[in-house]
Design goal:
Strand content: 5-15%
Number of helices: 11
Shape: globular
Structural class: alpha/beta
Largest sheet: 8 strands, mixed
Radius of gyration: 19 Å
Number of strands: 10
Order of helices and strands: EHEHHEEHEHEEHEHHHHHEE
Helix content: 40-55%
């Protein structure tokens, strides 16, 4: 364990935030998990407990390790409770204005030596860092979903990120048992620069009537040996997140090949954003998800 990161704040108790809190607490760090809604943080703690129990049942961790991890997590709806944190990882929604507002509030309460990290999957690290009072102590840590299972973390330096911050971030991620991929600060970094255009193309394939949801996902599972079809994966990620990333790519790289599919836009406008709301390209209201097109 990196002893310099004794207390770690996690802002945002959604799917990514609770996953990050899970692995950080299991790694031996004290965790302060914050969300604007206290009840969401409480729900996240229940999800973390459930996921740790699954790891115990699979004999991946011991009951003692689980109990100690849960005991290390405290929840709050007040960012002022991050004042003693050595590192704060922001995992809020993929909207730049929301992230910037969080960082500005955090900077009013954090101790000067504290590091800031963002779990953004696409937004410029340099630009986010410039909204803080410590751009040299700011870095990107893009965890993959689901965090407790996926081994990779992309580490992204902004133009002002210091060498010391970079080294501490790499050590911290490695101590969590994760593998590091170093990415340059370009729109969507590595994973989403490759993955999201593929998903967007799958949506175009559906939009143009080339294949049904079932056919497209089956084709990629059985024809390309993907563990999950691209439309199923889009639902898992969240169609709102997929659209946000495609918009960052389209605007940041000024290339029409990154234009979000109109069908993706329409689904997001309808609120059909995937598994988290029960409907996307699949209907999740029944025990077995069924294609909606």
């Amino acid at each position: 364990m990196d002893v310099r990161m004794r207390i770690v704040g996690v802002v945002g108790a959604g799917q990514m935030g609770n996953g990050i809190a899970h692995v950080v607490a299991l790694g031996g760090h004290e965790v302060v998990l914050s969300d604007i809604a206290k009840e969401r943080a409480e729900q996240a703690l229940g999800i973390i407990r459930h996921n740790l129990e699954r790891q115990v049942n699979r004999e991946l961790i011991t009951q003692d390790e689980m109990d100690k991890a849960i005991a290390r997590i405290s929840i709050t709806d007040n960012l002022a409770h991050m004042k003693d944190a050595d590192l704060v990882i922001e995992a809020a929604s993929e909207k730049e204005n929301i992230k910037v507002a969080i960082f500005k509030e955090l900077c009013e309460t954090l101790k000067p030596e504290a590091l800031l990290a963002t779990n953004t999957s696409s937004i410029s690290i340099t630009r986010l860092a410039s909204s803080t009072d410590r751009p040299e102590k700011f870095i990107g840590m893009h965890f993959m979903n689901p965090v407790p299972i996926m081994k990779l973390v992309e580490v992204i330096r902004g133009i002002a990120t210091s060498e010391e911050t970079y080294k501490i971030a790499r050590e911290f991620v490695s101590d969590l048992g994760k593998d590091v991929a170093i990415a340059e600060d370009f729109p969507a970094f590595i994973v989403n620069r490759i993955l999201l255009p593929m998903i967007n193309e799958a949506i175009y394939t559906l939009y143009e009537g080339v294949g049904s949801v079932e056919a497209i996902d089956k084709a990629m599972r059985l024809g390309a040996n993907h563990p999950m079809g691209p439309l199923q994966l889009a639902d898992f990620i969240g169609l709102d997140t997929c659209l946000s990333i495609m918009q960052v790519l389209y605007e940041g790289l000024a290339d029409t090949k990154y234009r979000p599919c109109p069908l993706l836009v329409k689904y997001v406008e309808a609120g059909w954003i995937g598994r988290k709301v029960g409907r996307g390209f699949y209907d999740y209201s029944t025990e077995e998800p069924t294609p909606t097109r």
